[in-house]
Amino acid sequence: MWTYIGVAAAILLVVGGVLLGLVRGSRSRNRHLDEAPPEPGTPGPSDADLAPDGAIGTIEHPGEVVEDEVSPGAGPAVAEPEAPPAPTVETPEAPAGRLRRLRARLARSNTTIGKGLLALLAGGRLDEAAWEEVEDTLIAADLGVAASTELVDALRTRVSVEGTTDETVVRGWLREELLALVDPTMDRSLADSRIDGRPACVLVVGVNGTGKTTTVGKLARVLVAQDKDVVLGAADTFRAAAADQLETWGGRVGVPTVRSDREGADPASVAFDAVAAAAEMEADVVLVDTAGRLQNKVGLMDELGKVKRVIEKRSPVDEVLLVLDATTGQNGMKQAEVFAEVVGITGIVLTKLDGTAKGGIVVAVQRALGVPVKLVGLGEGPDDLAPFDPEAFVDAIVE
After folding, report:
1. How many CA atoms lie less than 13 Å away from 83 in the CB half-sphere?
2. Residue 173 belongs to what H/E stretch?
3. CA dihedral in degrees (293, 294, 299, 305; nearest 10)?
4. What is the pLDDT of residues 233-286, one digit of tens each?
5. Are 234 and 247 spatial neighbours (Cβ–Cβ below 8 Å)?
6. Which CATH number do you get for residue 307?
7. What are φ and ψ of residue 88, in 5° steps?
8. Would 329 be classed as within a structural domain?
9. Backbone phi and psi for residue 132, each to the nearest 5 degrees, phi listed first
């Protein structure tokens, strides 16, 4: 009996195997029928695509190919985002080039002084009335009464001694006397290099409306053109747009700006932070912009004095530049005197000198304060600020 049972089991195994083979063959044929035939000329799989047994991948379900295994820790391949384009950094014009260009503009703006004086002096009728007219012309040009009288007396003496009113000769005399008044011997250098291993510190002050923040931005361009590493401090925290304006100026030439994100922040604190940051960056110079002040407002002027004192806890203040509007004339003299008392002015920046024929303010402010005009602004362009050159200034007037 066991023999019959064994034979029956063998027959069942054979029949089962045949049926299983038929099912697999049917599935294989269906899979190949579902697949689109390859396009003519399409290359077959390469050796790299073949599994070790020659099969193309491993089939889990009809038509589904399992991808190659990814190494542990490796995420999906993601394209790196494109970096935003770097901001364009401008190259400011060199100061030497500015002086040549600005001299012509200065000559045009001061023709009243030069032509008026030369016409009077070369007229041949230098009586007392004529000399009074010469003096009035100089006073009207904001030269100041004392300086005007001094210049007229010197010219009268030369004309009397030499006995000539030749225009070429008189022009030479006028140039010499004006140059003596402007005083080319004054030190007009700017604190723009490291001092005793620290950045030079420049505090910029002035009344409202003189273009002070713009002047700081333009001064940064002057220094960058001289290969100086500059840091700006936006300590004008009362005018909402002042810090943004200064940061824009600095960004154009690649200069960082230290500012507060809070409107109305303590300006002394911002100034202190700017000086500290400049030291950490090992910059050559830090320029600190301050809020515009009215010289007759005691509280505002006292606060300006506080800004300077707080800075000095971190670093000496090497330069205090007063920005004056040349068109304000003698009123600018009163402003200058008050600022000099509060923070100790070391130099003057005259803006808008191209908008007036009253270039005599250069002489007047220097004589009143005993400090030199160091920079002049002669236009609205970003590079229209230049170091003051006494000889170029005087030549522009008399030529």
Report:
1. 3
2. helix 167-182
3. 50
4. 999 888 878 899 999 999 999 999 999 988 778 999 999 999 999 999 999 999
5. yes
6. 3.40.50.300
7. -75, 125
8. yes
9. -65, -35
Q: What are phi and psi of 287, to 5 degrees?
A: -105, 120
Kindly give the residue spans of alpha helices, DSSP state H, lying in 286-328. 298-311
Q: Which residues pair with 348 in a beta bridge?
A: 322, 373
Domain that holds residue 120: 95-182
The letter for the amino acid at 191 is A
What letter does residue 231 receive in the DSSP assignment? E
Give the whole-angstrom CA distance, residue 137 versus residue 155. Answer: 14
Gap between the Cα atoms of 201 and 191, Å rounded:
7
Q: Does one domain contain both 173 and 206?
A: no
Tell me the whole-structure pTM to 2 decimals. 0.74
Residue of 240, 300, 292, 290 whose CA lies nearest to 264: 240
Residues 341-368 have pLDDT tens digits of 888 999 999 888 776 556 778 888 898 8
Amino acid found at 283: A
Please report the pLDDT score of residue 293 as a whole number. Answer: 67
C-alpha to C-alpha distances, 190 to 184, 319, 384, nearest whole angstrom: 15, 8, 17
Q: Residues comprising the binding site?
A: 206-213, 289-293, 351-354
Residues 6+ apart with CB under 8 A from 180: none
- Run of H or E residues at 290: strand 285-290
- Distance in angstroms (rounded) separating the CA atoms of residues 245 and 148: 40
Which tokens hold the place of 332?
């600018």
Q: What is the CATH number of the domain that holds 138?
A: 1.20.120.140
User: Nearest 10 degrees: CA dihedral of 103, 108, 109, 111?
Assistant: 120
Residue ranges for the known binding site for GTP are: 206-213, 289-293, 351-354
**How many domains does the structure of the chain reveal?**
2
